[in-house]
Amino acid sequence: MKISIIGTGYVGLVTAVGLAELGHQIVATDKDLTKIYKLQAGIIPIYEPGLEELFKKVRAKGLISFIPDLATAIQESEVIFVCVGTPPLADGSADMSQIEEVARLIAENLNSYKLVVEKSTVPVKTSYWIKRTINLYKKSEASFDIASNPEFLREGSAVQDFLHPDRIIIGVENERAREIMLKIYERFQEKIIVTNIDTAELIKHASNSFLAMKISFINLMANICEKTEADIEKVALGMGLDPRIGREFLKAGIGYGGSCFPKDIKALTRIGEELGVEMGLLKEAHKINEDRIRLFLEKVRKALWVIKGKRVAVLGLSFKPNTDDIREAPSLKVISELRREEASIHLYDPKAMDNMKRIFPEDPPNLVYHSNLYEAIKGANALLILTEWDEFCQMDLDRVKNLMANPIIIDGRNIFEPEEIRKKGFEYYCFGRH
Ligand code: NAD
Asked: Is 430 a catalytic residue?
């Protein structure tokens, strides 16, 4: 099938490459032409494990191409996957301007029947607005349908998630759209759930909000553990072994970040409120998450007393391991605060440093990026762990201890066993453990 992909970010690019791997002919485009030119030259603009290999494979087969011209991409395909951003506005609701812009472009270039697929995460009822926009601006009599096909990939394992989905949700309102979507995902037949469009749109927001809530719940329990003799890791294990609860997303720490959970929980809260539904449950989950940074910084102050002038090593800048994405990463707020308090900050991340340099440019001796973790911790008065990269879990603790000025670790991800690390001579702070 000939499919165009609009927006080649984390979702669009993985979707483009994944659909090409399923055998479809893909033409992808983006407003950001630097991305398109890089992709045309065979360069992947993001870090995502396995993406480069698959990209090379489908490119060699001639199944994928990148063009700067959105009009051509729209005109030449029957199916259009919309993968643009839906970032939060100041009031928490989703900014739909990128989606509207694409809907207008589709309207202006509607030369034959099109199936417009919402891949971006959008508020329930968005299909109504897309349809209205296309009808308002279209210049031809050609017909079109809308389908919702929310994306559940996780950055860091996005390619695997695309190729081995738990479920594929397809929201449609007629047989023609249903047939096309079933054909696109023929290989995953047994994973497909077909619903109406509102349901499909809501499934995505509901899933992300539920997972965010689960993290906030365990963090709330971690706060209780800190005031008692209970241990959050064991509480999480004891809870998680109940199959109704499950072990995933029960990790206490500095809280969730990224471009999805914080924005989606706020967007769903706004949607509910606009519909007159009391959304206190989600508001509280968001509030608990916001408070994690304050609690983490409290631990830093407890360890260092005065932050001003202290040499602080920060390991982990991405919002989670195996990605270079720093959107809404806890590191952003922690670094801001350390800068405000005039610490000397030494940063290291395996993949996210280039992105972080755009926000916090190098400013020696106040803010320095290092090419490896051991360089970053040399002479440090404290070591802060903000992302649970494998590299940090496996670091040589004897070497770390010898390199640091004071062997103090403040661990935002609970990656070490407190008893063991203290035995090695470290002063150790984490969440919900003693
Ligand atoms: P992103 O910012 O990485 O990518 C969006 C891309 O759309 C950018 O490259 C941007 O230049 C492009 N774009 C914006 N307006 C455009 C236009 N008018 N025409 C062409 N291109 C345009 O965002 P992302 O992380 O890929 O997320 C995209 C959507 O998918 C969001 O709604 C997000 O919530 C959702 N989603 C993201 C993830 C994730 O893990 N990142 C997972 C599931 C769903």
From this structure: no
